[in-house]
Amino acid sequence: MNKYQQIINKLKDTKNNDELFILLNAYINEKLYEDAIKLIENNSQLVKEKPLHIIKLHIELLLSLELFDEASIAYKKYLELPYISQEVEEYLKEIPSLIEERKDVNKNKTYTIDEIDEILTSHYDQGKIMDVLFSLDNYNILKLLTPIEIFLLRKDVHPSLRTYALISLVSNNISSPVQILKDGKKITVVPNKLKPPFCDDNFKKVIKYIESELYKDPSVQQIAFQLLNNYVLDCYPDDVLNDVDLNEFCLALTSLAKDYLSIANDDVTNDQLKQKIKKVLEKTPDLII
Fold first, then answer.
1. Which strand (E) or helix (H) includes residue 179?
2. Where on the phi/psi map is residue 66: left (φ > 0), alpha (ψ -120 to 50), or beta?
3. Contact 215/186 with Cβ under 8 angstroms?
4. What's the chain's average pLDDT?
């Protein structure tokens, strides 16, 4: 047992400030970065004593583990600190660009099959999960069916991420049945029997309507595009545009976009359809990466 391991064993339950710094250093030297992060997050007095050092260390540890969501949350928390020095203030200004730079580096990363397996079955960072899901077409997906099937039933990830995983199976023409958690219930689907979203004639007609009818108001147009994509994704694998009057759907979507922007809205719409779309959209929180 080396000296850092001895320190960890002796001080792991300490509340003494000086000893906490010694313990933190031991964690770093033993590359126990997750333990170091927990120590910082559970002992706010460390930031009070050495704000610049601890904030830098905390953010760097999170970024080194590619915990981008957690780094963003920590950044927002540090913004609320009272009485920060100019040095700390200058560093806080750099953090958003640091996070984006690391994300860009991460986008170009290739993963091993084992890494993908681990990320899909146990990771929580939505940015990393999204990166893996969008790279699945670069791999032999048959070797990844088991972790994907586990991922499709994970309750602790955003529902849109589960849908993206299903779409990967659809695009790869997988013929074996899989289960996916949808609205709290397990449903069984056969991927190669499903139509991929965003590419059928009805979807293209709605896109054309938004482009032609809302071109004079780019803000409403942009929100309408976003609401359409979210609605189709939230409802997939149901083909929701196949069962509605497309003219009424387009008017309802436009009306919702105006409501979202608090724009005066006297559009005549099918209120029942509008409320149905709104209910689906409100049920699923935004996916934040």
1. strand 178-182
2. left
3. no
4. 88
| Residues in the chain, overall count | 289
Which tokens hold the place of 256?
A: 């919702």
C-alpha torsion 194→199→205→211, nearest 10: 140
Check residues 100 and 124 and name the one with the higher pLDDT. Answer: 100
Do 273 and 255 touch, CB atoms closer than 8 A? no
Return the closest-CA partner of residue 21 out of 30, 11, 31.
Answer: 11
Model pTM? Answer: 0.61
- In angstroms, the CA 39 to CA 273 distance is 51
- d(CA 166, CA 185) in angstroms, rounded, equals 15
Asked if pLDDT for residue 99 goes beyond 70, the answer is yes
Exposure letters 30-48 (e unless 16+ CB within 10 A, then b): eebbebbbebbeebeebbe
Q: Each residue of 53-69: pLDDT tens digit? A: 999 999 999 988 878 88
Sequence-ordered list of residues with C-beta below 8 angstroms from that of 276, at least 6 positions apart, any chain:
none
The span from the CA of 131 to the CA of 76, in Å, is 23
Distance CA 160, CA 167 (A): 10
The contacts found for 10-18 with CB under 8 angstroms, 24 or more apart, are 17/45, 17/46, 17/49
CA distance 260 to 137: 35
Angstrom distances, CA of residue 167 to CA of 4, 130, 178: 47, 13, 12
* Distance between CA atoms of residues 39 and 138, nearest Å: 38
